[in-house]
## 1
Amino acid sequence: MKPGLIPPLDAAPLPGPVWLFQVLLVLTFFLHLVFMNLTLGGTLMAAISRLLSGGREGDHRTVLTSRLMRVNSYGIALTITTGIAPLLFIQVLYQQYFYTATILLGWIWFAFLVMLVVGYYAAYVFKLRFDRAPGKSTLGTLWLFLSALLFLLIAAVHVAVNLIHAQPGKWAAIETSPWSILGDPAYFPRLLHFVLAGFAFSGVVMAWWAVRRAAAGHEVELNGKLARSAWRWALWATVAQIVDGVVLLLVLPRHVLLGLMRGGAATMVPLTLAILLAIGLLMMLSRVTDPVRQRGTVTGTLAALALTIAVMAITRDQVRDLYLAAARAKFELMTAPQWGTFALFAVLLVAGLATVAYLVKRVLSSPATGSEAA
Amino acid sequence: MGYPIWDIAMGGSVLMAVVAVAHVIVAHFAVGGGLVIAVTETLAFRRNDGELRQLAKRSSLMLILVSTVFGAVSGVGIWVVAGLVAPAAISALIHNYVWGWAIEWVFFFVEIVCAIVYYDTWGKISKRAHLFVGWLYFVAAYLSLVIINGIITFMLTPGKWLSTHAFWDGFFNPTYFPSLLLRTGIAAIMASVFMVFPALKAAMAVRGHLLRYLGWWLVAGVLVSYGGYRWWEAVLPAEIKGLFLGASPALRQLATTRHFLLWALAATLVLGVLLLAVPRLARVVPAVVLMIAGFAFFAGFEWVREGVRKPFLIHDYMFSNGLLVSDIGAINDEGLLARAGWAAHDADDDPLSRGRQVFRAECSSCHTIDGYQGIRRLLPPDPDMTFGVLSTLSEMGDAYGELAPGQRIDMSSLDYPFMPPFVGSDEELEELAQYLNSLAASGGRLAEKGAGQ
């Protein structure tokens, strides 16, 4: 008799309870999403803004591009760094499914590494060579579009891996043709979901930044224009997101949708909260006509958006488990917690975050004096 | 063995080597560069030396571009490639050392934040605050090496872990401290050979001063590396050491690589002394030669380290093809294709097809057909001998299977000490022999094509 296609569990037990890894996976994935939204949505937004402004000096869209790429030159590093932790925890929890999905994609999966390096360097080329030389924009705009296109392709690869690993029933067909995953009804709505979230988050962050600059008296008119422009990105992306969100729910396999609905408070609270937050966000976004004068709402919208991402990360994790429920029922995960090393990790995590907080505080409170500013 | 098999013409091990070597070079620069840059800025501060400060500043841009971009992505790349070519192996490592990796991630996160802040705040914050950021970067980067070194050395010398399966028993294994010393020296070498390039951008009048300064770092790195390497060799178990000292005729290549890496280190030392003595000779081409010498030593060491681990991925626990030592008996009883779901799925009923799938599941992690470690050219001329070799490999499995947990095998007693044993039923052994002989025969290529997947 031939064995099934789901590989056996690892011989070694999990070095901690499942719930702990799940909490860490969702938590670190949320952190990753925050930076990823800026990388994906921000770079796309920067490229389009640069195209529209033609790189004209003083144009608020040129400034928007410049600010987005300044943030992203570091934001991309943090996207990668914060992506490492969920990549680690997904390998612990979903090893059989995750590795299988990546192997079925083979070079397509490997290619994301190459695209990431090229996309990252392209962003740096723009920042170091073209950003400070407005006007000569065509080549600079091309570098930006290259970077944005590569990040979009990376997102497309990740969406494919995620859909494949959650559906062992499709593996045999994927082995024959990896591209058949594009025919999954959830594929494009899911990809669009990430792109739109990226636009919304980047738009609100840029508006928030511009509002703060304007409030401090820096280039009030320019920052006002920039804030309104970034706000429109966020507003229209959220309108589209609500339509896409409904589509995304409707194309879920029936057992997954029913599982969500019948999962009781555990699934319905995050899902309902996510829907309410999305509607609330739309209302907040549409109420603001002049972000500079409505600073409180801008800050509130940013907080609500971050909360929405966190709740969505929970729902996303639950959807994955519902997809995999039948397959995972055949395996019994053994655990042998290494509490001592986990405690060391927890202590070091807190210490690490405290160190970063102290670092930021010290840097902000130690401006260079005259002779040092060289 | 239950995973799908990624057919990659160049060989999965080659791709892994390319990504891993590129990563370790950059990762060690990230650590060593942290130390050298922090010391350089400190000296610049104390001596009020503007040129040293410029060297630290230019090097910090290099650190950002090389380390936070390529270093981070290639680090993820090791997981990605391992998951593609050896999923069971990386899964076993992660199951045992997930908290180790999680701790390393914390240090890496702090390291990246510090690198960004350090580069972005030159001249914007007080010098003392900037120095603080630089030193914090180095501490975080070095601590990430302290952690990852435990996982890397565990794979070669798991020590007491084999019987206890306890985290720290595997972590502080026999080669942990020698390897840490060696890698500390390597980090200093990598920092020096990279930072020569920003130093060359300085005006001619001060270039000698900067290059001589880096020469001291380079010589110190070479000496520390040499001490660490010798210590590392000394603590290796005799049967592992024997492999690269030429005990196995089939592994002479490893002995050659060992000579090569030591000569490369000697060449790096000579170039370092030249840098100290006549820094004015340094130009771009000599700097590239220096860099190649440093890389050659490091890559040579990594090659030897990986080579002497053969045939294991985790010594005495898991073979390089993902086979657990403890599974040998069960797979021999049940048959390989009863366990390897994807290979069984891709197999037709004819023996050649089944033999090909046995090859893919059991051999393709090291052997391609015609590329790296190409099996076709390794086959014996006499088809009967193929069966004989496989039978010998199968008998090796019996020898491994008789070991008690934690007991080590006498490698010199094995005919093919660098290969995992053959596991599977008698029929599968015959089918594999038939498939391999079909490759060797004139119609071999046709048989390969006709066998489907």
## 2
Amino acid sequence: MESVLILFAHPILEHSRVHKRLLQALAGMEQVTLHDLYQTYPDFFIDVSREQDLLREHQHIVLQFPLYWFSTPSLLKEWQDLVLPQPGRTTQEPLDLSGKTFGLAVSYADNLAALELPSEPSAAIEAMVLPLRLTATRAGLRWCDPFLIPDASHLDDTQLALAAEGYRDHLLAKVYYQRATAGPGASRKQGSD
Amino acid sequence: MDHDLLFAAFVYLSVAVLAVPLASRFGLGSVLGYLGAGIVIGPFVLNLTGEAQNDIMHFAEFGVVMMLFLIGLELQPQVLWRLRRKILGLGGLQVTLTSLALMGVGMFAGLAWQTALAIGMILALSSTAIVMQSLEEKGWTRSPGGRSSFTVLLFQDMAVIPILALLPLLAMPESLALPHIGDETAQHGGQTATSLIAHLPIWAQGIAALGSIAAIILAGRFLLRPVFRIIAQHQSRELFTAFTLFLVVAISLLMRALGLSMALGTFLAGVVLADSEYRHELENNIQPFKGLLLGLFFIAVGSSIDFALILDSLLLILALTFGLLLVKLLVLAGVGFSFDLRGSQLALFTLALAQGGEFAFVLFSFATQNGVLGLEISGLLTAVVALTMLVTPLLLIAYERVLLPWFDRVQVPKEHDDIEDDEPRVILAGYGAFGTLVGRLLIANRIPTTILDFNPEQIDRMRVFGFKVYYGDATRIELLELAGIAKAELLVVAVGDADAATRLVEEVKRLHPHLTVIARAADRFHYRQLKQAGADIIVRQYLQSAMFMGQAILTSLGFRAFTARRRAQAFERHDMKMIDAMALEGLDDKTAASIARSASEQIERALHQDSAYHRPELALDPLESADFSAFGEDAELPLGLEPSPSPQATQARVKDSAS
């Protein structure tokens, strides 16, 4: 059960240097299931029961995506809307996510200063991912520190390789150390160096 | 012995059937098999050929003509034009240098310069038939060495014409054996007294020759296509084959009447037609005739080897054979090297072209009749040429078994092929209304696609838009092979005839198991057949369009458009799952019907439970406590925020409401 489900959402992966490289870093990781949403649902018709089965089968959920307008790409939003359990809704097979962790791997093109967010990095990140954090905890998932790739359009090959390696370590840590989140303020900027 | 036609056919076919598989079994190639078969039935072993042998030889030479037509079909005019410098340079240099070198050897041996020059020119030519057949069999025609060999052979075919014109000028009065020039030599590219324009002055002959070549090109471009279309409309394969043969024969006759090379004429016709949509079908039709006639030709060469003469002067003939090979090898090596051939490709080029050609037989008898050569010399040299032809397949085997592995070890830098192959990534079989839409999408995405269809009007329409559409019965595997299926990534089967489509998928999957096959299914029975035939992806031809129509109807009846779309999508998914399940189980109709009934109930239920109608908007009330201090003072908080229960508590509530 110590397995990671990566819900990967990128509508134009062929143009993304960063995410292609990150995906390469996942190759050969036995504990990781990569689920490419745009490849699976090109017409946005999400198979809800299949998605919920995937959630049941994994212990750690990670959403990997590029930040579009301070949010996820639209298919990943559709995924949240349909797949996550909704309070008050009766379903044939209830989805119990308690005890599972929920993390992000987010790239964004600008550096933090350009985002017009609070100047303190941890606060800025906090603000950016707040809706997702609220969603996750509301769905019963345990929030984890996000893995961030800022300034993604300007990374050189060395920085990219470092980020990919960091991503791998980040995922391995989930599997081996069962790292839980501390309080909200404990979010750390990771992988950004 | 009294041989009638049937008996002769029986003899030739039976040895061919016996010898060729035997030779292939031992890795010797079909050419050697045919030559060996010829020797066996020839006058020196079984003596079954009789007097008809010469006639058969002449008849069989038509195989060479057909081969050049086929080679022409493979070469688009632009490609030929790009090759012009190589043809003239490489070919010209090889013919000139070999002629001069052999002439030198001849004069050193005490021949008059005229005789030596004639021999040199005749022996400089190589055998198109043997070389191309051997290269094709080994799959080397597209390698740099194979390409270069072909350009030289092409030049040699053209060089026959001036050589024929030159030979009479080299006549030695004392050796003029025959007072009259026979017309026997007219069979293969010969300019002879039967030429209709022989009585005209040279310049007029030149104009007539150029005019006829221009006529072939113009007719090929503007006249043949409509004629082919009319014939194709009859959808009769026999008629198409007959017309193709007629075309080749007619061009040959025209060229012969003008005293030009028949092979060259048909080659030109081939080049002109290489662009046309009928190219693959033409190849397909001529191929078996060419194969048979070439085989016949090789047998005839084998049976014509005069072993009595060879035994009489064994040492002399062996020395001459060896000497001829050596001179040609040296010149070829030098010429090839100066045209940037290196390593294994240089070796292939050199070894492939070292023999004497079939033109030599014609030219020797022509030279004898014109008093250029004595009977004795030409007899001797004819035997030498035949022996070098016999040696060529052996040289190529040595190349493949010994030299190639050695070069592979030494590692040769990869040479650049100067002709890019227009190999398609996708072959689209069947270009009806359905295939047209598929093809347009592919072409819009610039995916190299070859399209095959059997409907001439349809092809015409698409050709107008600049698509590469070829005429032909796409359900015949040979045509797909010609279209390059071996190297394509994907085959799209969109032919209208369901049974033919299934057979095609089956056969393609058997021969090319790794090729991805996408097929169109007419209905669910066809879907099952295609699944069993091994199609990788099957698209039901009516499903999606019916769903779009259903969606339009629902929308017209007042459904919100997005809801209608979701319903159609959900229905489509369920139906696909059901058909897939039924296809795998191979059920009889009754069971299938009951499954279909229960499936439609399932679908109905599923549609009403579609989670798309349950969006989380109303579930916002209890929010997880979060540290909003990071937003700073003027940050606005979302509405309705209040301390929320823990995740566990939330979960419990979900469970409550679920139960």
## 3
Amino acid sequence: MVTRRLLVGWTGIAFLAVVVALAVLVPALNLGLPPSSRFHVPTHIVVLLGKWLCYALLAISLDLVWGYCGILSLGHGAFFALGGYAMGMYLMRQIGTRGVYGNPLLPDFMVFLNWKELPWYWYGFDQFWFAALMVMLVPGALAFLFGWFAFRSRVTGVYLSIITQALTYALLLAFFRNDMGFGGNNGLTDFREILGWGVREPGTRAALFVATCVALAGGFVAARAMVVSRLGLVLVAVRDAESRTRFLGWRVDRFKVFVFTASAVMAGIAGALYVPQVGIINPSEFAPTNSIEAVIWVAVGGRGTLVGAALGAVLVNGFKTWLTGAFPEVWLFALGALFVAVTLFLPKGILGTLGGRRRRPVPPTPTPAESRAAAE
Amino acid sequence: MNMKTASAFAGAALAAAAMIGPAVAQDTIKVGILHSLSGTMAISETTLKDVMLMLIEEQNKKGGLLGKKLEAVVVDPASNWPLFAEKARELISQQKVAAVFGCWTSVSRKSVLPVFEELNSLLFYPVQYEGEESSRNVFYTGAAPNQQAIPAVDYLASEEKVVRWVLAGTDYVYPRTTNKILEAYLKSKGVKPEDIMINYTPFGHSDWQSIVAEIKKFGSAGKKTAVVSTINGDANVPFYKELGNQGIKATDIPVVAFSVGEEELAGIDTKPLLGHLAAWNYFMSVKDPVNDAFIKQWQAFIKNPKRVTNDPMEAHYIGFTMWTQAVLQAGTTDVNAVRQAMYGQKAKNLTGGISVMGVNHHISKPVLIGEIKGDGQFNTVWKTKDLVPGAAWSPYIPESAKLTADWTYPWVCGGCEKPKYN
Amino acid sequence: MSPTLRRIALVLLLALGAPAAWAQDLAAPLQALVGDDLAAKGEAMEALARTGDPRAAAALQALGDGRLFQRKSDRKVVIAATTRGGALTDAATGAAAGSATAADLDEANLNNRLRRQLSGLLGSLTLTLGDAATRIAAAESIFKTRDAAALAPLTAAIAAEKDARVRRAMETARAAVVLVTDGAEAERIAAAATVGARGDRDALGLLLQAANASPPAVAAAAREAAATIQRRLVMLDAAQNVSYGISLGAVLLLAAVGLAITFGVMGVINMAHGEMVMLGAYTTFVIQDWCRTAAPQLLDHSLFLAIPLAFLFTAAVGVLLERSVIRWLYGRPLETLLATWGLSLVIQQAVRSVFGPTNREVSNPTWMSGQVDVYGLTLTWSRLWIIVFAAIVFVVLLFVLKRTAFGLQMRAVTQNRAMASSMGIRTHRVDALTFALGSGVAGIAGVALSQIDNVSPNLGQSYIIDSFMVVVFGGVGNLWGTLAGALTLGIANKLLEPMAGAVLGKIAILVFIILFIQRRPRGLFALRGRAVEA
């Protein structure tokens, strides 16, 4: 059995403690204290932290497939964006007659492009439960389908990385098209309400922030549960010697499909939480550069550590936020130099270097049948 | 070891939080500049940042505003739309700027709009856009479709006797809307549907062989044909290079562009493009003392005697002049007071007229049609007699024809069918 | 006044049959030429042409060249030596009038309608002058303007013309004029056939125009001739699309072939590859800029200078990157992704700081401008040269890899480093040189791309994804695969584009790549053997 101690470890406990502390303190200090107080956390910090934590969840999902299974996805931003679009569609439907043209059914951009009726794929998104389901289902189904084909065909290494990039690039182009019915380049914006609460209210923002913290903690625990279980051992085996694992009788493709799908669902949830906090979702989220950046967060924080991935996401984005304000003219030099320096001097990432040896608990060897069950 | 990592993490979290310190008490008036200095839009927006710095420096030489110096706060949203929203929030909440000058492309404006409305601040948006918007927190100093597209089409129809139209654009909201308005307008003028060809290309499209050949084909139907181009910045250079190389001369099939100005032409050899057209509200080549002074000042500021000026720069010039006047008139930088003072504010534009800020947050502008010359400048071939007030809502889109934008009593609304009385 | 202008004036006199009016005052129409009233300007042009005065002809010529100005100081109409000023001639008297720069002069403006009118007027003037090319151009301009007044001089010129090619052009031009003017039906029907024989889109346009607005018999003849052209053009369309595809394929090949070395052969996921292309393009800009000021006579051939210099410069940058960063990362391909991504950000921003964020102008040399017509297939010279250039680069690279000692060492090192090292190959040196080769090739790709695309700091970004697709689709580590990949993707894209539109076409290509990789997980030309699994 997997014990609590094994499940998260010291670093994990520290991480969860920080996330919980943030979840409690940030809303409390934001809502509970007057703006004049020294300890008041202004709303823009809440929004900023919320955004970073969504990125952190995306980074954890990416680390799960890359760090533990060796699948370098250069298209994870696609799952993030799909989750975001599902949430965005719900938020669009909530606008109702408050849009500029006051059409109760059609979002503004459709009215404006002469659409007469709602496309079928927009049905159901007026219900939160449906949207929430789609947030997980759409990225999950795409990842399953994609993984099913790719992993069964034994597409590996750079070939896989490049076709994931092709996937997100194709989606980018598709969502850019105004004829697709997703608002084209402008995407979905001008949100008003989520579950009846105004998205711009400080209370809603705090609630979304707490939800993000919960999702991040939940995602972390789930990912951790996967990697410390027997499933995780197989994943690591696949990462380190895929052919040997296959020759030992494991159905490598099924493990890969499972973990890829799970990771995509996690990325979708991160995207869904991101959209109401940022206030806009548009095709640029599909841009291949965004996915590459996500890979870089993981590499900076430490691949195969989960906590490191989250840390990397927050640090790189924090760095970026600070630099773009403080040194708008030269910040790219600093960011570029940071990436080069990390690769040269901290090849295992920040946490990987600090943490030294990687924790690898050695439970009894599972039989193929057991782990196949675990994968399904 | 593990405790070490844990403490490192906590430390990093603290450091991240500390990056965003509390706002510093101010004895200057801060002006936010929200233009991309890196990424795909840097090509256009960096110039506008420099113009703003110049205008602010100039104002400070005159003694600033209300006895205080102006202080420019420059940030880099890096052509990343969510980052635009983040930076807008940072400028308003943390830096406490009095107004923000910035954005380029509708999506960047749409992305910051909720932030400006939530925090009640002012944005001056300097680029021509598709209209269909009038926010209480945005002043649109670029052209609305009625100040650019429709006069250009009128000119081609009357002066060049064009009867067949190619509407070519990048697939995003500005070309979509402009083309939709133009299509409705052309049809209302009796152009047959088969004489209109609409073509959309992705952003940064670089291989124009097929499309230019298609245009050539469409243009060889025995009727005078013209191309109305809403192709976005980056894609224009390869487009014009292909036009030039495939030998499409302006005397055969003229191309009138709404997004190609002096800055874009500076990157192209314009000799093959002689006579192709652009519609703007300002050309660098316009002879006017105010314009001459502006160009001289700009070239001195940027330390390059060859740098060109363009339409969005003029828009910032007008917007900034109006804002400073409004602040002086209101006696404060308070957003509500300044906004009230903005209505009816008059400022000299650079082409010899006086632009007025309307109650729909759009300004009046002259419309100029220019033909490209060999030196990358435009030769004004047509100009409206009077300034055209900007219309937020187009009468050629049925849903939008009903709406009125008027932020003064009794309307108090950016898009309503009936006055709101509050 | 030059002798040519005198001759032009003389011809003008004969051609238009205008009465001699040497003494007529030119001042009023000349003033109208520099005025703002466009209608008056058109009339003044006609009036000047009618006078037959050599000074008037000179003024019209100058107007067409953009050398006619009004001097700001005394509002006198002058002809300058160049479009930027220089020595001045008084347009009304022909006397020298000092010199001035563009700042002291107001240019006489034209719009397209006037430009057409003027080229018609000048077209009649140059029909019997100059070399064959000029005469053909004159006939061509009459073909376009179809100015009825040009009919008489054209008929006279045809009678006097000896060169068969020129005469054919003139006859077509004459037929074009006849076709659209009211005249004898039989003559117009014959004209329709003559125009139809030209067989291109311009002829088609003219015929369709005639088919819409002519007496029934003429219209029928025009329609028939048009139909013949249309049938031919439909057949050509497919071939035309394939030719566009090859040209796009050549661009993709150029962009990707450097990557085929740094990524395909060395295994470095080189995200800075696009920036090498960009540096190559900027080198071209710098060379052209230098030529423009220091050696204008070289400007037309500056590309020949740019190619080796771009290669050397980007190769040097490549060596620098390899020695300082990438050499620490061999065998860890994913980390090269991170480092080269960082480097690409730095290089982009550096270029932005040095050259500014805006596009820089790189002009096409004259031998790369315009288009060539091969049996109705039109290809622009720039594209054609890029195809040739891509082929040369590819062949040279193949030769280097397969037939030289360096190529042998390079393949040895990438296939089995330890073994190569023990055979006495200096692997570090080979690594550096290989990376330099890949970067250098990217650099010369930049020279070619500067001819058809933006030269801006973002140039590289727009090619990097396509380059990776090409290399992976073709099969990593195989140069032939890169060639096949580039051509397949280019042609497929161009065949899809007319059917599905540019955006959907591109999406279809990406989906195709994804599906294709499922079928052949190691690309088109897969490497075989044990090394593959490593």
## 4
Amino acid sequence: MRILVGTSKGLILWEKDEQGWSISQVFFEGMPVSLVYVDELSGIWWASLAHRHWGQKIQYSKDEGKSWVSVVEMPRYPSDAVLSSGKRAKLKKIWSIQQRGTDIDEGIWLGTEPGGLFFNSASEEKFQLVEALWNHPSRVDENQWFGAGRDHPFIHSILVDPRDSDHIYIGVSCAGVFETTNRGKSWRPKNEGLIAAYLPNPNAEVGHDPHAMQLVRSQPDVIWQQNHCGIFKTINGGGEWQRLSEPGITPHYGFALAIDHENSQRAWVIPAMSDEERIAPGLQLKVYRTEDGGKSWEGLTRGLPQQFAFDIVFRHSFAGAGNTLVFGSTTGNLFLSEDAGDSWEVLSNYLARIESVVLLPD
Amino acid sequence: MPRIHFTSALSRFFPGLAEESCKGLTVREVVDEIEIKYPGIKDFILDEEGKLRKHVNIFVGEKVIHDRDKLSDSLSTDSEVLIFQALSGG
């Protein structure tokens, strides 16, 4: 097992040997790695770099980091793509990278801010804006997409149905969940049951704030969601979402979510205090696990700091594979569990802000 | 011919980046020329609209260029053009 950790100051590879876990390599030293993603089908490692001076860039490696190639043709919004303000849309940030399913040979999706989804089919060798989503009436006519925490809406989750690469869900902050069954030619909102407590109509069709979404590969109609307004799950492909949390009683607000792809009843979250106070609740860092589909949540603390912990965990900074879990925090702490969260080991307290983690099974 | 110089920070992304002599007689023409030699470098310097990125500066001699949108500032054959990143913290 290996771990890739994308931080605000570099991409770090951890490996385990007889001595335990250690850093074996640092890539992009000193550079802001805003996202790392591994395409399990092709083996390609992807890294998004959010340069402060030079704009958003993407590099990929086909040899597990031995060499990296820059994407020269970055995803580009068409010159007539405009925001609700009337200003021209420009690429602000890469928020998600997602491989296609096994039923097609090539293809990679990118979710971006200010709200554009891009697809690169490899044959075209270029990232193309998915026009039908960009021109969706909810964004263009109804102005129901908006920024939260950021100036503009962004697509942070792209879920490809493992049975059918044409069937995709995306999560947009803020707009909500959208589904296509024809690889992006048309889209419909899938937000029934979600709650947007900050809107005049909390049950609006569009305007929701999913923070992170994960689809259970062995049961692709089951999708977990950590939302601004609680933890939700659907068991019918987004037909209806059920809230699994209560403020003050269960974990509720947060960003990080990990699931068990073999057991749709098991998932983990790492809550933050609240929208206003983005710290570990009570300054105690806790992971919560459910084994019953979200009916109950167990707080897991062994090995985690239980006082004066200011950490929160971003949406791409929590990963799981079987009983192995890893997460990294905004304060540069990296924690690992090899027993499904029962106990945690500190891998480092000295990293920069952790933006994303990936577990690489052997 | 105008000479163009680059911040060393760009060398990290474009190994072999060195001072260049260019034929162009506006900043825009010079940037277009260096893109041919170093594919992708323009995207580091300019945004999607072709405007100078917010945190990048281009100097001609000791003066920052006036036209950050169209890069129409003219050059003479002995101009020294410097592409720098603006200073920032963090």
